[in-house]
Write a structure and sequence with these properties.
It is built from 10 helices and 7 strands. It has 2 domains: about 5-220, no CATH class; about 230-299, CBS-domain. The strands form 2 sheets. Strands 1-2-3-4 form a 4-stranded mixed β-sheet, covered by helices on one side. Strands 5-6-7 form a 3-stranded mixed β-sheet. With about 300 residues, it is α/β, with parallel strands linked by helices.
Length: about 300
């Protein structure tokens, strides 16, 4: 008999493969109370993400418990309006900040709390959760907010690559810090290394998800415009050698683009539409638009 999945507000919850190892390390290092405090701070943080996504009409697919806390997978997050992604991303840190201010105010009202270890652990965990998630690097909340701002100008694909580069830089810094601590004091922080591996792996996956979601959104938008009888088209002149991946960066949810391929004499060799372009990914992303045009001519 199959065990029903654990859910939170109707959203399935699962554990990342690295989570048991991180939990074991925390237990062996005597950091059980700290882990519980982090879990207590994490719950309102993730509930805020869920509430923001639901309030904006976005479907949440699952919640993944990770070595750094939790991650919520939202359907078509990259394919929607950038401001929606920013709102969902910033809802978590905003909730953590409000909780931090509330806990600090409670400590001011009841001085006895300042000496209570559970309260101090919760305060530190919530502060760490807020500060870490404000870092502008994927897959952290600050990174998603940064990518949302960039996506409006550069497109989701390039924005995700910038965020992923920042995430890899953060992961490299964490790994370097762990190695330095080990070489300097003989203390090897395996949790730091596990977190670095997780951040790097997730960051490298984001650009692929962004391109896929953006392409799906473009197809859906084209169908909606076709049914409505309104299909605005913008023609863009590009060198014939322009690659498919480069042309994809020019696609936006608010417009339809037809690419006019120009030779050195500025003559138009032909046109490639979005449908042909989207059909070429991901297998032919590195090829030129001219190759797509020649294939169509042969047919």
């Amino acid at each position: 008999m199959r065990t029903p999945p654990v859910t939170l507000l109707g959203t399935p919850v699962r554990a990342h493969a690295l989570l048991p190892l991180t939990a074991l390390l925390a237990w062996r290092m005597g950091m059980g109370p700290e882990a519980l405090a982090l879990a207590a701070a994490l719950l309102p943080h993730e509930l805020a993400h869920l509430a923001a996504a639901r309030g904006l009409g976005m479907r949440t697919q699952e919640i993944v418990l990770t070595p750094l806390g939790a991650a919520i997978r939202v359907e078509s997050l990259w394919g929607g309006a950038p401001w929606r992604m920013a709102a969902v991303a910033l809802a978590g840190p905003a909730a953590s900040l409000l909780l931090l201010l509330g806990a600090a105010a409670a400590g001011g009202a009841w001085p006895a709390l300042r000496f209570a270890r559970p309260w101090l652990l919760f305060l530190r965990a919530d502060a760490a959760l807020f500060l870490v998630n404000c870092l502008p690097a994927l897959p952290l909340d600050g990174g998603r907010a940064l990518c949302a701002m960039l996506a409006a100008r550069t497109g989701p694909g390039r924005a995700a690559r910038i965020g992923a580069a920042a995430g890899c830089a953060l992961a490299g810094s964490m790994a370097a810090l762990a190695v330095w601590m080990g070489a300097r004091w003989g203390v090897w922080n395996l949790s730091l290394l596990i977190g670095a591996v997780y951040i790097a792996a997730c960051a490298l996956q984001e650009p692929r998800e962004a391109v896929s979601a953006a392409a799906e959104a473009l197809v859906l938008r084209r169908e909606e415009l076709r049914r409505a009888g309104a299909l605005p088209v913008r023609e863009m002149a590009v060198p014939a050698g322009t690659s498919v991946s480069r042309a994809l960066r020019e696609l936006r949810p608010g417009r339809v683009v037809t690419f006019c391929l120009m030779d050195r004499a500025m003559r138009c060799l032909g046109r490639v539409g979005e449908e042909r372009l989207l059909a070429a990914i991901p297998d032919r992303a590195g090829e030129s638009l001219l190759a797509l045009l020649e294939d169509r001519a042969e047919v």
